[in-house]
Amino acid sequence: MKALVTGGTGFIGSHLVEKLCSNNNSVRCISKDYLNSDQLDKLNIEFIKGDLLNGSVSEDLFDDIDVVYHVAGITHAKTRKEFYEGNYLATKKLIEYCINAKSKIKRFVYVSSLTAVGPSIDGYEVDETTPYHPVSDYGMSKMMAEYEILKHRNKIPISIVRPSAVYGPRERDMYLYMKSIKHGVQLLIGFNKKYLNLIYVDDLVDGIIMAAEKIKAEDEIYFLGSQTSYPNEDIGKAIAEILNRHPLNIHLPHCMIFGICGIEELLGKMCNKQMYLNIQKARELVQNNWACSIEKAKSQLGFNPHISLYEGFLNTFIWYKKMGWL
Q1: CATH code for the domain of 105
Q2: Which of 260, 261, 284, 310 has the most CB atoms less than 10 A away?
Q3: What is the number of other CB atoms lying within 10 angstroms of the CB of residue 154?
Q4: Residue of 23, 24, 22, 20 whose CA lies nearest to 12
């Protein structure tokens, strides 16, 4: 099997490439960034540096491909336009390449996001029947990409997976949370209990590959997450146990979250720098429940995430420590 992976040098993409190689697949990787030497340079992959938006990717790269995994995307941006271009327009261009390939591509797998649908409504888990209701520009751009892919499902076999919050080695957002707890502070947003579905990257990669290989997955959409959603306090407790810390819990009201994120966004505009926090991120952070049902993936794909929260955080911490981050 010959696979093409976009975004193969990123967090999720690099883990996917490693798994595909370990399963004896031939892998071609397209990325805007050069190979990260500690991740992929020892693997027998074909690496192409290119950008789907600027014409630097040649159409003939798709002519001998069996499966396309579209993992590349923009998760942080300064403007709505950047999300639109990086997540929607790039996807539109990619699927056009795939449709026009000389040999028929057997499956196009798009790695979308829970944010494309939006947070839980009235406390219920979202599932594949839940209407789209994204709360951020990022979620909106992923929703638009899904629409574009679904529009072409009569021309190319497609599968869409929607991961919940993903963590593991090489991921940077969880590092900031762990760093805060290491210094004795756990920041909690709001005063009501908030829930988050988290999935360890290895479990996610297994689900992505299942979506590519299972016949039942053709033209289907799946949420990929953990077996349960966790209160933010429990997430912090698991990390604190690993770090051997007893952090002080500090609750930040929603208005303060918007204020902090607004200031960060303003500073970013003044310095022409991409900041992690902005108003769009605040809209996601203040939601009470990012929970999704994975029953469809379990029943149709045999998806069975097995890495516990503690084990996943421990693996992540060990990697952060190895890299000198913590």
Answers
A1: 3.40.50.720
A2: 261
A3: 9
A4: 20
